[in-house]
């Protein structure tokens, strides 16, 4: 076996064997180290899990539903975000990074449009489902200054529709929740948070200029209380502040029926209808863009139900609300619809401020029709006066074109109260005038004491019959019309009387 001895004595073979053995030893050492580290990690993980009878640091749910952390990790993160936001607002944030974050908006709106948006000051009144989504969209798109106004706090029921609130935010003011979360997204945005209720008395302060003197470029109305909504829209109208109003997203489910148009066109929305009625009484009939839904209620669809009888038994219903005059019933809301409304609002504001071309549904202009109805009513009153022995020359009626539009659109929804038809409409007294209904106390003037809550919408053909049988022959409406028609008309007249009285 001389060849075996020759191989064993070969220097090259010895080096190869040594290398192989060294590699095996190294591999064994690495594998052993990894296995030891794995076992150590598993042991450490198991030891970190407390037993059921041991105290632990899992977050608990407090009495009102908010998560309370056992350590200050969340607080530390919030402090870091707030500190970063303060530095960013002072200019300690790279401009290149901001433009990179806003790159998609920049190429859409161009540099000039984005610059306008970044300098803009927008006021958001109402920071719930609609307002939070509008605010988040504006901040993410580069709006420079945002004033947030809302008196309310985040609740558990808010989480189905709020844009940024988490379980940990329950119980905190909505305005502060928005700022805290959005500062982590756009730290350079300037926020002015006001945890206050909007009202007519403080409108001038809440809608005042920014501390540098800049007036609001736009105001967003996301209020769900009619009294506050009307006060905000009236103030903006009188002070020429651009404003867009969100109508009701509650009980809505069809996003294809959400539109942006003039408030005079939003006839199918109950919140819009109530808002329009009160604004008309204040002299505002159009000129306010709104987001509204044309969706109608129907069988199987959600609707605001009457307050349960057991709630009435608790005492005054008004005392059940958070604040006086605020609703005490839960409004059915599909969480997606407030987001649709809010994003539409933000979209409109961004296009308006940046100057981007856009077209919406045109305002419904029916002034000529209202003028014609007013002229017919004037002629009808003159004929009735003459029939009852009063000289009609110079007779004046206390009704304007705006009054006609209000009655046709808001009280009778553009349809005859007699037949439900919607064409060739007219207005007429419901009952024959009694007593001396023409005021002659002012020399040279004859004033017809006609009241708006005595007028009924009907077609021209129905008016001719009504004039002959009721206003001239003196028949009672109960003798002329079916019981269902009389009840329907009387109900409308009572509603109008109650509404006008409560709005004074």
Helices and strands, with pairings:
Blueprint: H1 2-8, H2 11-48, E1 60-61, E2 67-68, H3 73-89, H4 95-101, H5 103-119, E3 121-125, H6 129-141, E4 145-149, H7 174-183, E5 190-194, H8 203-206, E6 218-221, H9 226-238, E7 243-246, E8 258-262, H10 270-281, E9 289-293, H11 309-312, H12 336-354, H13 367-387, E10 395-396, H14 401-411, E11 425-429, E12 438-439, E13 446-448, E14 455-459, H15 460-472, H16 477-480, H17 483-502
Parallel strand pairs: 3-4, 3-6, 4-5, 6-7, 7-9, 10-13
Antiparallel strand pairs: 1-2, 8-9, 11-14, 12-13
Helix pairs in contact: 5-12, 6-12, 9-10, 10-14, 13-14
Structural class: alpha/beta
Q: Report the sheet-strand fraction.
A: 5-15%
Mean pLDDT level: 82
> Rough shape?
elongated
Low-confidence stretches: 54-67, 311-328
> What's the CATH topology name of the largest domain?
Rossmann fold
CATH structural architecture of the largest domain: 3-Layer(aba) Sandwich
CATH class call of the largest domain: Alpha Beta
Strand order of the largest sheet: 5-4-3-6-7-9-8
Number of discrete helical segments? 17
**Helical proportion, percent range:** 40-55%
Task: Give a quick account of the main beta sheet: strands, pairing sense, barrel closure.
Answer: 7 strands, mixed
Taking Cα atoms only, what radius of gyration do you get, to the nearest Å?
Answer: 35 Å
Name the assembly state: single chain
Provide the domain count. 2
Instruction: State the fourth-level CATH superfamily of the largest domain.
Output: NAD(P)-binding Rossmann-like Domain
């Amino acid at each position: 076996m001389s060849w075996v001895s020759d191989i064993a004595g070969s220097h090259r073979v010895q080096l190869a064997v040594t290398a192989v053995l060294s590699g095996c030893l190294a591999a064994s050492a690495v594998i052993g180290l990894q296995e030891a580290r794995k076992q150590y990690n598993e042991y450490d993980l198991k030891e970190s899990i407390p037993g059921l009878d041991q105290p632990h640091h899992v977050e608990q749910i407090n009495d009102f539903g908010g998560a309370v952390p056992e350590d200050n990790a969340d607080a530390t993160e919030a402090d870091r975000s707030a500190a970063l936001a303060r530095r960013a607002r002072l200019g300690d944030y790279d401009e290149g990074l901001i433009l990179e974050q806003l790159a998609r908006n920049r190429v859409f709106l161009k540099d000039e449009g984005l610059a306008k948006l970044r300098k803009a000051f927008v006021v958001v009144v109402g920071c719930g489902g609609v307002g939070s989504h509008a605010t988040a969209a504006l901040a993410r798109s580069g709006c420079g200054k945002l004033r947030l106004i809302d008196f309310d706090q985040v609740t558990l029921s808010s989480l189905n529709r709020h844009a940024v609130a988490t379980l940990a935010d329950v119980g905190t003011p909505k305005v502060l929740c928005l700022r805290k979360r959005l500062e982590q997204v756009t730290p350079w945005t300037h926020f002015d948070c006001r945890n206050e209720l909007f009202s007519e008395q403080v409108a001038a302060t809440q809608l005042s200029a920014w501390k540098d003197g800049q007036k609001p470029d736009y105001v967003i109305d996301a209020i769900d209380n009619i009294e506050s909504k009307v006060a905000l829209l009236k103030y903006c109208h009188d002070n020429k502040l651009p404003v867009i109003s969100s109508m009701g997203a509650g009980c809505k489910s069809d996003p294809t029926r959400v539109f942006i148009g003039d408030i005079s066109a939003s006839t199918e929305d109950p919140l819009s209808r109530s808002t329009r009625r009160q604004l008309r009484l204040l002299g505002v009939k159009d000129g306010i863009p709104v987001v509204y839904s044309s969706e109608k209620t129907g069988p199987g669809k959600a609707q605001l139900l009457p307050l349960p009888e057991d709630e009435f038994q608790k005492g005054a219903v008004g005392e059940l609300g958070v604040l006086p005059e605020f609703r005490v019933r839960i409004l059915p809301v599909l969480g997606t619809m407030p987001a649709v409304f809010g994003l539409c609002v933000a979209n409109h504001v961004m296009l308006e401020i940046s100057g981007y071309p856009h077209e919406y549904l045109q305002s419904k202009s029916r002034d000529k029709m209202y003028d014609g109805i007013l002229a017919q009513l004037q002629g009808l009153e003159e004929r009735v006066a003459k029939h009852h022995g009063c000289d009609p020359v110079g007779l004046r009626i206390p009704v304007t074109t705006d009054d006609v539009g209000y009655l046709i659109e808001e009280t009778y929804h553009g349809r005859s109260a007699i037949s439900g038809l919607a064409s060739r409409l007219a207005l007429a007294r419901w009952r024959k005038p009694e007593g001396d209904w023409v005021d002659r106390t002012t020399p040279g003037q004859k004033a017809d004491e006609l009241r708006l809550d005595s007028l009924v919408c009907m077609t021209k053909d129905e008016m001719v019959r009504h004039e002959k049988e009721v206003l001239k022959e003196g028949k009672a409406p109960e003798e002329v019309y079916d019981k269902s028609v009389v009840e329907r008309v009387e109900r409308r007249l009572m509603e109008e009387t109650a509404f006008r009285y409560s709005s004074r």
